[in-house]
Design goal:
The chain is α/β, with parallel strands linked by helices and 214 residues long. The protein is 47% helix and 14% strand. Helix 2 crosses helix 3 and helix 5 (116-123) packs parallel to helix 7 (170-179).
């Protein structure tokens, strides 16, 4: 309980920072998938902690966004809610709360060895922001990824690359979001191979967004 209380206070400081910088959103995560915590207990604890932050976020005009995350670089274990079913159950456990939504990241779904479009179909009415990136399979299959999703460390089978040239179907993603009434921010996660690549990714996303959100 003391550790969770510290993490809640830490999140409140990030909410204050977001507000001070004029931001409207602040990300929250479910924490690490610690082996001693059961699925049900983890969902309950994560939902309780998120709800504990919501009144403070609303006071500051900030929306908390839960990302389908992979893992932070300094974490020993992967994200607790990385698997799609757990993520969707956590969103449901938090409930229809003012100032709460989903930050959808299709590439993180690939890292879990799962289908980004299936996740989107399940959470599309909760999505308020999105991370845009792309991934390539260097070897193996998505089924291989699914068997390895619990390993510590970044997925070696996948490489980060230019948006629109990888495994994500942005026509299907943007079409689904448009039909669901999405009008939020799309944040680009790219540029690992230089500014020229980033420029191409930006041009691709602008073109696709114009096609689907015009």
């Amino acid at each position: 309980p003391s550790f969770r209380a510290q993490e809640i206070e830490k999140e409140k400081r990030w909410i204050e920072m977001a507000h001070a910088l004029g931001a409207s959103f602040c990300r929250v995560l479910s924490g690490q998938r610690r082996p001693e915590i059961s699925r049900e207990e983890g969902i309950d604890l994560a939902a309780e902690s998120i709800r504990a932050c919501l009144p403070f976020a609303r006071e500051h005009g900030v929306t908390l966004i839960l990302e389908n995350h992979y893992k932070d670089g300094f974490w020993k274990h992967p994200e607790f809610a990385q698997p799609m079913d757990i993520f969707c159950d956590l969103v449901e456990a938090v409930g229809e709360q003012p100032g709460f939504g989903v930050n959808y990241d299709p590439s993180n779904t690939l890292l879990a060895g799962e289908d980004p479009l299936e996740l989107l179909s399940r959470v599309k009415h909760h999505v308020v922001t999105m991370h845009a990136s792309d991934r390539y399979l260097k070897h193996g299959t998505l089924e291989d990824l699914a068997r390895e999703e619990g390993v510590t460390g970044y997925a070696e089978r996948l490489a980060h690359g230019e948006i629109g040239q990888g495994m994500n179907d942005y026509d299907a993603i943007f079409s689904t979001l448009s039909k669901a009434g999405f009008s939020g921010w799309v944040s680009i996660e790219d540029g690992v191979d230089g500014p020229e690549q980033l420029e191409r990714s930006v041009a691709f996303l602008r073109r696709k967004m114009k096609e689907h959100f015009a």
